[in-house]
Specification:
Blueprint: E1 10-13, H1 39-48, E2 52-58, H2 60-63, H3 69-83, E3 92-96, H4 112-121, E4 129-132, H5 135-143, E5 147-151, H6 161-170, E6 175-177, H7 180-200
Length: 201
């Protein structure tokens, strides 16, 4: 799947539309934070396979005054509380709090969140698998050399094949999956093949 070897196994996930249900009026509270079917179990499988799971998410609702940082923390506390009994966890959440007009570097499709993740973990982001449901998620990831993966959930659920093809043309090396669980299936299968090939070498 194109991922390179790093000192740690790291995967970067978008949040709204990828891990949890997206809303046109923004996810504004922990009650409104509802996981996508199978997404939390998929994250748990990654964690149990030794992957560090990091979230990179635009949260312009903060900049728009729709919720505060305490409420955002409550959403992420709920996410990890739901992951715990499944044997999973998210190591860190990197978020952009700005509104579009703030013209910041951290709002996807700009790469600031991914640059910050590389600095925090002390790794080259080249080849790190990154998953999202929108073009801007994938453009931000590709800008730092991550391997882009589109999930057909959230905003991408309504994409037709022409829309997917248009996205492939804008994001070289894009792999498309039905959902986060399908991405994890593919990632762990590819990892298993690499391990098997290494044993045979």
């Amino acid at each position: 799947m194109g991922e390179r070897s790093n000192p740690i196994k790291l995967v970067v996930l978008d949040r709204d539309g990828t891990i949890n249900e997206d809303r046109d009026d923004y996810v504004k509270s922990a009650d409104e934070w509802v996981p996508q079917p199978g997404a939390l179990a998929a994250i748990a499988r990654l964690y149990q396979a030794g992957w560090h799971v990091v979230v990179a998410t635009n949260q312009s609702g903060l900049g728009r005054g729709l919720f505060d940082a305490y409420t955002l923390n409550e959403m992420h506390a709920k996410m990890n509380a739901l992951l715990m009994p499944l044997g999973g966890r998210v190591d860190a959440v990197f978020f952009c709090p700005h509104a579009p007009e703030d013209d910041c570097r951290c709002r996807k499709p700009r790469p600031g969140l991914f640059e910050d993740i590389g600095l925090r973990f002390g790794i080259d982001m080249t080849g790190v698998p990154a998953v999202g449901d929108t073009l801007r998620d994938l453009q931000a990831a590709s800008a730092v050399g991550c391997t882009p993966h589109l999930v057909r959930t959230g905003k991408a659920a309504s994409l037709d094949e022409a829309g997917v093809q248009a996205m492939r043309e804008k994001v070289p090396g894009l792999t498309v999956h039905a959902d986060l669980a399908a991405f994890v299936d593919a990632l762990l299968a590819a990892e298993g093949r690499r391990v098997a090939d290494g044993r045979r070498a």
